[in-house]
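request received
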Amino acid sequence: MTRLPITKTPKVYVGGAFIRSESARVFPLKDADGNFFANIPQCTRKDLRNAVEAAAKAGPGWAKRTAYNRGQIIYRLGEMIEARAGEMAEALLLGGASKAAAAREVAATVDRLIYYAGWTDKYEQVLGNVNPVAAPYFNFTVTEPMGIVGVLAPEASPLLALVSLFAPAITSGNTVVALASTSQPYPAILLGEMLATSDLPGGVVNLLTGFRQEMIPTFATHRHLRALVGVANADERKALAIGAADSMKRLQLLKAEEPTDWFAEAAQSLYAVRDTLEYKTTWHPIGA
Amino acid sequence: MLARSPHAALRRLFDEVGAVDAVGIEERVAKYGTRSIKKAAKLWGLKLAASMVDLTTLEGKDTPGKVASLCQKALCPHDPELGVPQVAAVCVYPAMVKHARKALGSDTAVRIASVATAFPSGQAPLKTRLAEVKAAVGDGADEIDMVINRGAFLSGEFGVMQDEIRAVVAACGDATLKVILEVSELETYDNIRAASFLAMRVIREGDFIKTSTGKTSLNATLGNNQVMIEAIRDYYLDTGVSIAMKPAGGIRTAKQALTFLVAIKETLGDAWLNNARYRFGASALLNDLIRQIAKERSGAYQAPYYFSEATESY
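response:
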């Protein structure tokens, strides 16, 4: 007997749930051969607003976890992708990657998560400090996560770049609202399913799909986003800089004109963790 | 003996005031959230909702200082440039009324509401409850929020419940009365409608019926609100007496507040869209209303920490 094909409705992972866009809009995604593959949610500024609310709700709990526990959870996210590596590689083929390149990207993505999982309980020792002062006080500089971080993933390397951008942010206890690659959104849809089974609390990582030009103005001006990291072209960088100045957010943008090698050793760094941290310096009397 | 049982008494009352189609109510209120209210209409609604807030603090840890800062917020909720109106009233415990009066002064449009009558349970002798009402009015309360005797209602002693409300009306003098039905303890929509009618028959034009104390798990819902405003509508059509309404507890977001206003507009009409006829008992709501007004003005989504923290309680 022939079965009817059961195709999956792609949904985005926001607030620990799989949702359609509130606008109910979708855009068609074609595979590498130009055949229709699926309708992808075309998220709007209101979806971004809702995702920020979800991230705000999840934030305090995530930041309060012990560093060790955050590491365990990010490691488990790596495990979840590893276990479904074949399926994820298939998703990357849609964008025209070769089988070898897709497998390499999935492996590098898992390795990147393991790298940051290791940093969760170590970055503080390296970035924090006890400062010498000429008085009977301890003077500590400690780090704190900034809060909600917006991530703008580039078009290429739709999985590795996305993970490389959000992983350092969640390492320190930030929560993330990320916009996936517009032309290759499906790996982010699939990643949502892995996030959902990774012990990462709902709302810590929220993934949106849609059109960059519709979303960037809201990423720029939303006052609840403390920082934006990602890749943007010259026009986008200008719009983001103006919006960020008005809403006092930090920008860490790579230039889209100068392609980044996401496989390189330089694409993973302690300094990427530092990019979404605030420093706090406190005085404490000695002997008290 | 059946005719004397609470059940029979309720049954007779339902026959008289009519029962509630619970499924119909749920379906009706589910539609209110689908109205598209944008731009100028939204800004108007947000400001109207802000003007209807009874800014509330009802905690054991309330202090004169906390009440004074609540009063400042009631008078000037935010930067005047934003155009957020003053709230309708502050709502405090009777012991805090004199501090609220001191903070607000006598020449103010912001009214002082006080929960009295052994709020939230109402389980004190009538004499004590009436003394509490008189003391609150004496200290300068403009409005009294009383709780009904749910025990009397549920045991079918409607006369007792109504006599107590009458006594509180008398003790209020010129103060406006709000009768809290505590809907979560009435259990069914039929009971809520029946209790609304019993209360409306003994209070004065312009007095309120109010959903809840905010001290129980279930507070104001659109369904409870709908049952009560339909009772107000039917009572008005019968008698010509307009009773006001106050949902309280659980209304935290601007979007919720707008949905409640839609319910009023579509059930009672424009005559009830003002703070003499409709109020929100809330503390956190005002912050979200201001936040959304700021969003409408600037076009940028705002972070909650740019606005003052919620005063907690309900």
